[in-house]
Structures are given as C-alpha cells and as structure tokens.
Amino acid sequence: MKKGKIFSGMRPTGRLHIGHLSVLENWVRLQEEYDCVFGVVDWHALTTSFEDVQSLQQRIREIALDWLSAGLDPEKCDIMVQSQVKEHAELHLLFSMMTPVSWLERCPTYKDQIQQFGLQGKEINMYGFLGYPLLMSADILLYLATHVPVGQDQIPHVEISREVARRFNFMYQKEVFPEPQVLLSEVPLLPGVDNRKMSKSYGNDISLTASPEEIKEKVRLMITDPGRVRKTDLGNPDVCVVHTYHKIYNDVEVEGIASDCRKADIGCVACKQRLAAKLEAVLGPIRERRDQLLAKPGIVDEVLAEGSRKARARASETMSLVREAMGVKG
Ligand code: SF4
C-alpha cells in the first residue's frame, strides 16, 4: 500500500553533478513508498533559456540517463518528459484563467531571479517566466499529487499549487484536486571545489559519473584551510571544503579527521586521499550502471516514451474531470 502520490521534476540543464545526488537518493527511496511520477520538465527549461534549444533533446536524454544510473527504476515509477504530455500545457492554460497575477508576482523567487538574470545581462522578463509557478502547479496537480518532495526554498511553490487547488475546487464546486503536502527533504548544500556555488559553468563541480581520476583531480583542487600553510600548522576544518564533504560522505571518520586536523596529526594530502576513496565508493556504482545502460542503445528513449505514455493516461483522466468541472470540451 503506497503512502500517496508524488510528482517531482528537474530541468534538463545537462549532466548532473554530485550536488544533485541527495535529491536523487531521496527519489530512489520515495519510489518504494509512494506512487511517483518523475518528470524532465523541458518547458520549464525554456522559461529562462528559451534561446538555448540546440542541445535540448540531448540534455533530456543525459538527465534521464543520470536518473536511471542513480537508481530510479521505471518498474517502480513513471519517468516522463513534460512536453510529451500536452495536458500539462492545457491545465496550465486553464489555471491561468483563474489565478490572480498577484499570486505569481509575490512568489519570492520571481523578483530575485529577474534581478539576478538582469545582472547577468539576460532578459527573462517574459510572460512564461512569470507563469512558471503556475506551470509547476499544473505539473503537480495533473497527477493529483498528495505530496511534493522539496527543499526549504521551494515551499512557496508548493503553497501556490495548494492555493490553486483550493480555488479550483471551491470555484467549480468539485473536489478534483487534493491539496499537496510538502515532503521536506534534507538536502545538504555542497559547495563547488573552489567553495563557490557548485556549477558546471564554473568548472568547480564533480560530475555524477566522474572517473576515479577525475574524482581525485577535483578533490586535489578543493580549497582547504587557507591558514594552514605547512603540514605542521594546526588546521581549522570548519573553513575547509574537504571537511564539508567528509561530513556528508564519511560520517565514520569525520570526527577523527577533524580532531587530527586541529592537532596537525593529518596532512591535507592524506585527508584528500581518504575523501577521494569515499567519493569513489559512492560514485563508482552509479558510473557502472551508466556504462551498462549505455551498452543498450535506445534504452533511455524507450523508458521516457513508456513513462510518458503512462503519464498521459493518468493526465487524461484528470483532464476529463477538469474539463467537466469547467464546462469545456476536450
Ligand atoms: Fe581540510 Fe583535511 Fe587539510 Fe584539515 S587536514 S585543512 S580538514 S584538507
């Protein structure tokens, strides 16, 4: 007996990195307990990157391959592509008729992002960008999701989908949509190797499918305690990127390493070697699964086509209820 229904998605921004792993590990757990639909939300990618479409299909395949490599199982969840289920667009359109613009404008990420992208010289003051929390609500509600796994910063988006569900049910006097609950996930924020935000564009990420050599090289580049110049200097692990990673991936040794660092009983080279070994233990199996999947050409397209087909069947049932409530024909 499943605990409820879940929809969650990611934009196809390219190959994933280790910073995405905790979200994926959470999804892998949730697929056992909930009836899950996981979507590659390609229309969302267009809200901020509408000019960058050359590699979109490639990026969709890459992200799906990473999901499968990390342990998502198409026998246990539906893995779909948003644009292959046109009902997302229809529900978004119908919701847009009954959603006050002020709900979207007050979304905390909206003004922040407009400003952030503006500073980068990028124009995203577009109709689609304003409406993206509503498209997100359509994504969630289309599958009658009862739960949405999110980090703290995304709670306002789930709140909009709850408000939209409430308004729809009240306005059309039909209990079509459940109000989805937040399933708060602890997602530790991993810095890039240079202690900035981890991003492929900065080159400071560790790819989910990095080779053992790439892992060693990225760990070698990690910023350590800048006050520890010589091995005999006492260290401060609290300001060291390597230590941040040990805390997440090496819970058995982390306390001992921190204590040894403070007493200068361990050098940074040895400390990094231990971390690289731990990261390889986590990423090695993901890389192996990816290699196995790559040996089966067409497998990712098949998974996405089948997942989208199942998602369309679910979406079609919901849209019948929505159209009937709103008095429109399909
Ligand atoms: Fe960082 Fe480890 Fe060096 Fe201490 S010993 S400064 S925790 S890399």
Task: Sum up the structure in keywords.
330 residues, mainly alpha, Rossmann fold, Tyrosyl-Transfer RNA Synthetase, 2 domains, three-stranded parallel beta sheet, two-stranded parallel ribbon, elongated, binds iron/sulfur cluster
Question: Could you provide a short overview of the structure?
Answer:
With 330 residues, the chain is mainly alpha-helical. The chain has two domains: 5-190 and 297-326, HUPs (Rossmann fold); 200-291, Orthogonal Bundle (Tyrosyl-Transfer RNA Synthetase). It contains 14 helices and five strands.
Would you write up a description of this structure?
It holds the Pfam family tRNA-synt_1b. Keywords: Aminoacyl-tRNA synthetase, ATP-binding, Ligase, Nucleotide-binding, Protein biosynthesis. One of its GO terms (cellular component) is cytosol. The protein has 330 residues and is mostly helical. The protein has helices at residues 21-33, 42-48, 56-70, 87-98, 101-105, 108-119, 127-130, 132-142, 155-171, 212-220, 241-249, 254-262, 268-294, 299-326; strands spanning 5-10, 35-40, 77-81, 147-150, 181-184. The chain folds into two domains: 5-190 and 297-326, Rossmann fold, CATH 3.40.50.620; 200-291, Tyrosyl-Transfer RNA Synthetase. It has a three-stranded parallel beta sheet with strand order 1-2-3, with helices on both faces. Helix 4 (87-98) packs across helix 8 (132-142). The chain is elongated, with a radius of gyration of 22 Å. Bound molecules: iron/sulfur cluster (SF4). Iron/sulfur cluster is lined by residues 224-225, 228, 235, 237, 240, 242-243, 261, 266, 268, 271-272. Iron/sulfur cluster binds next to helix 11 and helix 13.
